[in-house]
Design goal:
The chain is mostly helical. The protein has one helix and no strands. The termini are far apart. The mean pLDDT is about 90.
Length: about 70
């Protein structure tokens, strides 16, 4: 293998790695956005659950007519 062929193969590999890294970065940003959205949803559900416990009876309590 000549020096020019070797250099060409290295450049091709480097270009492939650059493209792969860019694709991974894009996927990671998408996952980070999804995690942030899910954290907000969980926080809202926790707040809703905590608020519901204070104002309503616990589900295992008997109604007053028993």
């Amino acid at each position: 293998m000549s020096e020019a062929e070797r250099l060409t193969r290295l450049e091709e590999r480097y270009a492939h790695l650059q493209r792969h890294t860019a694709e991974q970065d894009k996927a990671m940003l998408g996952l980070a956005d999804e995690v942030a959205k899910l954290r907000k949803e969980v926080a809202a559900l926790r707040a809703q659950l905590a608020g519901g416990r204070d104002s309503e009876e616990a589900p295992d309590e008997r109604p007053p007519h028993y």
